[in-house]
């Protein structure tokens, strides 16, 4: 054969690669002529480079954390992954803050479908429960587009579960120690928390409300002797153990089979289980007006022992054939936290009465999300997408046991009196009775492509919405004295036998004393929206996306006031028109200029609307505000991006927001003159303005010897100002003669940080076998922000900067084996919330301004994985 040319083309288009090469002629006898050969492969769309390219191309401000970056930085859960994005920080169990905005301003999607929270105290799922082994990519939308839910001010997060690209099986085991918590003697856990039932979270079954009252309205039921002894399956005792290292194990397998000539079916199964011991000790104080002088009403030391167990299961199956994609996912998350909290000190200004009280509780959440999504292309121009999900969701604090006594000299022989609030069992249950989410969209490409890559116009019309129904129950059972109430002696760690003896001797019985009406409430949320998007590309350098969303939001709250049989129904039914405009101008192939403007809404967190008074033993009450309103947000962004290479990027983003009816948390004296109440109000208006700076730089630019180093850094600086509502004025206004509202101190938005800084330095090395080793140092901090607005003469309470420095080393030893070493919280900063120094009344606290504080310790974590 005579070969004139062998041609293999090189083109990168939509993730496919074509390689090209030219070879001079040769002659081979009796062979046929071959004019060209094309070899096609697939690129990985989940690499950091691919994700950066997607960010560059998108018309809206969309950032992402790739599967590659998740692995490189040793990120073990979704919450950690999202904190690596500009302007996002996590704050000690209170979720994610975006641009300094509280978590209530965020929204979560899973594979494009809405998802409810599995915790009434948080807006979205506790994302630390979501393991990254099953994550393909984390998408973060910081500007609004009408196909997103209107609940948007900080960001919308979309978790894309792992796509079925190639078969593999992976087993991973992790072990970790904490300098403060691990191998600690006398670590306290509730009796029954360990063992296989505790490990699987099944011990919560023993803590359920007793059968005698479970399915009936409270009626001051008195448990007889037999019932008091036998109806409560969970013990008051605690075990003192040596805390073990934290462990986790994960198994993930992906398999793929052919289906016909061009189709394939994939299967994904992932199982993860982890256990963790945490110990903290620090202040837990309160500050109140005591005759127009701010004094410590509580001065408490708090020790917290948490034994936490997390489980997750994901099953997925997918069918793909040319323009057809069908995906079925089942996601199960369970978290069980067994918590012992010991308090010592005085409360309610009773300085001479030093007390000891203990809380023994379990927080359990179970979340099952079933999803079906599909898309179908018809020719080159038409695309249909649809999906639906059903969620079973429950959060409970079953049998939260609290007992209190005068601080003893001997904790094994302490004097204890029945009666009052000295012996309480609380039962909180937030039952997600029904949640369903759905979307449907039709897109058509219009115009003529000509020589361009894309069609000049795309029109999309669609629907998305959800229904969320919750039943909330909060009940109390008290240990009640019978006959002569004389003190008994107890061992505080082994109180159960003493209580049983008192019951047998007719000195004690249990009695339900829940309010017969206000114990139960129902919250119904219905959101339905239709939207229209029009994307116009007049040429290759302009991209204009205009959208409109019409959203109906109905919230119904059914509840009773304490002691009132009249059932109240609060119905808030509002229609919102939410327009959006995004414009991208590619100045050249390396520079983009973006502009966006939109209107959105913010819905409150569940606890912010629940009409209950959640009571803590330190005289703190969390009170939902059933009259809270949605916020309405007006957003504007202007961003410049520069991409010097496909691995580097620099960006400056100016943004501003006006939030009408901004929701804020406040701490004010309780109405019963004992303790404080944490509640929530709408501000009249909040104004925000800020700048985001971001850069990813290869240090090889500085010196060839540094070409394996990459520096990433981002920072957000923000100014906020709040105009108070009348409700807030009543709470914040001091009782001073002649004081006027314009004398109130100017303040920013609660939860908004004046700055956030994230940075990471990466070193990557590949050996002769192309196996990589990476080292990353990651740092983040956010500025002092208002934790809660103060009231009645006090300044606000401020969450102080918390500096976090982490180190991650990862080494692909062989094709199959990999190891990771992570050191988190190297600086071991103290977490602090403090009273500000600008109260309206004199402050006499001997220099003590700590609302609460504690250290977390340094975490060392080692992980080994094997991939088949």
TrEMBL record:
Transmembrane parts of this sequence = none
The UniProt entry, under SUPFAM superfamilies, shows:
Porins (SSF56935)
Q: Which residues form a coiled coil?
A: none
Q: Where in the cell is it found?
A: Cell outer membrane
| Keyword Membrane tagged | yes
Domain TonB-dependent receptor plug as annotated: residue spans: 58-153
What InterPro entries does its record include?
A: Beta-barrel_TonB_sf, Plug_dom, Plug_dom_sf
Swiss-Prot/TrEMBL keywords? Cell outer membrane, Membrane, Receptor
| Source superkingdom | Bacteria
What's the protein here called? Answer: TonB-dependent receptor
Species of provenance: Chryseobacterium endalhagicum
